[in-house]
Amino acid sequence: MTLVPAYGRDYKSVEEIKAALKAGNVDFQCCDVISGGGYVTGKELLTAGKTSINVRYKQQRSVAVIDLRKLEPKKPRAKKAKSSPVVDETTHYRSEG
Description:
Elements: E1 2-5, H1 14-23, E2 27-30, E3 39-41, H2 42-47, E4 52-57, E5 62-67
Parallel strand pairs: 1-4
Antiparallel strand pairs: 1-2, 2-3, 4-5
């Protein structure tokens, strides 16, 4: 899927594009024949199950391939239960002899 910034916006770098996608409230216009030219936000792309997109930037002279999986917020991992140290309950006596 190829996108362009909507409403006359332009991005100078890939970092600016990623920030706009993460913000989730900035519109991009689909420019694929299949997509029909509709508008989409970063939040919609992340929830739609897309894995990567192409975004035109620098006055549409450059194309960035963005991996959407890397933009998703990381899910917190479940904490592992701490195991208690094994204590040997036998007492060893040293005999003097």
